[in-house]
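Sequence, please.
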């Protein structure tokens, strides 16, 4: 199974940090909308693929624009929500990383199916959970992805989350220096990893 992680486009929370990181429910900036639309020319998804998105407005907006013509299975899953890398105490979490309520996603992004029965506390997500707990969630998430028997899976997520999965999937020595830029992507094959 080929997995492509895509970082969301520029969000309002990144415009004037650190204050903007306390913005609740930041959307994409105008530039972010342009980045997401441009992504359709660079990474292609099709009807045979699986798309999984973090429960955040900025990732859902990115995914909606990028995949508007893909007609693939589209899911929102908390296992790819925001995650600090390296993980820090929950008191260090930013308000911009608070997952959207399920009802808001259903209303604003009806093209996505929402997975709530995952064993992950929806309003906290995976942002500050210990690495051991994250690995257990990642095991379940990867198994869930594999259950679709798709050759390609696209995951629209966040820099810390993507880097956490890269480390989980066996990449040695990843650091914050390996964070993807806005709408950056990283592809790997995970067919050989045992869960």
């Amino acid at each position: 199974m080929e997995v492509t992680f895509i970082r969301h486009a520029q969000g309002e929370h990144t415009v004037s940090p650190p204050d903007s990181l306390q913005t609740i429910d930041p959307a994409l900036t105008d530039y972010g909308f342009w980045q997401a639309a441009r992504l359709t020319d660079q990474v292609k998804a099709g009807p045979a693929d699986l798309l999984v998105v973090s429960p955040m407005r900025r990732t859902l907006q990115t995914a909606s624009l990028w995949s508007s013509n893909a007609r693939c299975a589209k899911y929102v899953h908390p296992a790819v929500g925001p995650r600090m890398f390296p993980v820090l105490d929950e008191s260090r979490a930013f308000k911009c990383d608070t997952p959207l309520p399920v009802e808001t996603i259903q209303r604003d992004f009806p093209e996505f199916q929402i997975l709530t029965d995952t064993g992950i506390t929806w309003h906290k997500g995976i942002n500050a959970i210990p690495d051991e707990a994250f690995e257990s969630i990642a095991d379940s998430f990867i198994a869930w992805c594999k259950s679709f028997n798709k050759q390609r899976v696209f995951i629209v997520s966040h820099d810390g989350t993507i880097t956490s999965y890269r480390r989980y999937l066996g990449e040695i020595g990843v650091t914050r220096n390996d964070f993807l830029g806005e709408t950056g992507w990283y592809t790997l094959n995970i067919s050989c990893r045992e869960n």
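The helical segments are 30-39, 57-66, 102-108, 131-146, 159-168.
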